[in-house]
């Protein structure tokens, strides 16, 4: 019970920072934005402390839980949003990315942070397992932000086509910017996803358990990678229009989210 007050306080402060950000881009309140940014940095410091503590507590990496995984996703999304707010004036993106990070963190903290789910130990070097997990976390975070840009592209395109203007729409980046950011994030996220799957496959084969390659988790992971690869091929070679790419991006990310939801039916990570 001793640590739950800390997690509850963390969520309240995070929610308050998002309220300030929302107030800013609804009514262009610069003071609210400064307060929201300050609270967001404070939340980042707190989550960073939790991440470092959990890493220190699991230095041997023999135990790895869903809590650590999604905590890492939340931390990466929050970090990315702070970088975006520092170098780009795109308040909508900062808010939406943090909305995803907050949702992931809130759902994660409803689980028991102290309940550790054993991950089957691989007979490879400890660094290989750490590399696989790190690549998956980075890939998911980049592709999640890319999906946010794609969703905003579809929203703005619909507004412009129907000629429905508002102050909020006027503050959005251009269609060209949204498409460029979304595409570049996919260019980084897909290779990371491919590398993480390669490390996982090599680990399973070396351990002598090729049967795990037919697990639903592995099959759906490669299906998601194939969808993203097809999208990149259509974009780079076939010159697919940006509007179609934005729609396809959301389909690909939906497949990636589905991949995380089938964990209970998978034996690959022994997560139940």
UniProtKB/TrEMBL annotation:
Pfam families, A to Z: Cytochrom_C_asm
Keywords from the UniProt entry: Membrane, Transmembrane, Transmembrane helix
Cytochrome c assembly protein domain segment(s): 72-262
Gene Ontology molecular-function annotations: heme binding
Name recorded for this polypeptide: Cytochrome c biogenesis protein CcsA
Any one GO biological process: cytochrome complex assembly
Residues passing through the membrane, by range: 6-23, 35-55, 67-85, 92-110, 130-156, 185-206, 212-233, 245-262
């Amino acid at each position: 019970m001793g640590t739950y007050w800390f997690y509850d306080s963390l969520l309240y402060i995070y929610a308050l920072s998002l309220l300030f950000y929302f107030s800013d881009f609804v009514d262009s309140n610069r003071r609210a934005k400064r307060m929201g940014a300050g609270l967001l940095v404070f939340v980042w410091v707190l989550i960073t402390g939790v991440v470092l503590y959990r890493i220190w507590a699991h230095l041997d990496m023999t135990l790895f839980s869903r809590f650590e995984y999604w905590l890492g996703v939340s931390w990466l999304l929050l970090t990315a949003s702070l970088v975006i707010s520092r170098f780009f004036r795109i308040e909508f993106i900062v808010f939406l990315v943090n909305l995803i990070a907050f949702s992931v963190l809130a759902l994660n903290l409803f689980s028991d942070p102290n309940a550790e789910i054993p991950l089957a130990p691989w007979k490879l070097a400890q660094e290989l397992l750490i590399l696989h997990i790190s690549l998956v976390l980075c890939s998911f975070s980049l592709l999640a932000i890319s999906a946010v840009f794609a969703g905003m592209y579809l929203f703005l395109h619909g507004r412009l086509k129907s000629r429905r203007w508002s102050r909020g729409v006027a503050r959005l980046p251009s269609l060209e910017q949204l498409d460029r950011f979304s595409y570049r994030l996919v260019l980084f996220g897909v290779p990371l996803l491919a590398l993480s799957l390669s490390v996982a496959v090599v680990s399973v084969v070396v351990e002598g358990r090729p049967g795990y390659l037919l697990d639903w988790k592995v099959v759906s992971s490669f299906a998601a990678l194939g969808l993203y690869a097809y999208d990149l091929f259509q974009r780079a070679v076939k010159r697919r229009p940006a509007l179609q790419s934005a729609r396809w991006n959301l389909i690909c990310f939906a497949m990636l989210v589905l991949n995380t939801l089938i964990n209970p039916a998978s034996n690959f990570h022994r997560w139940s």
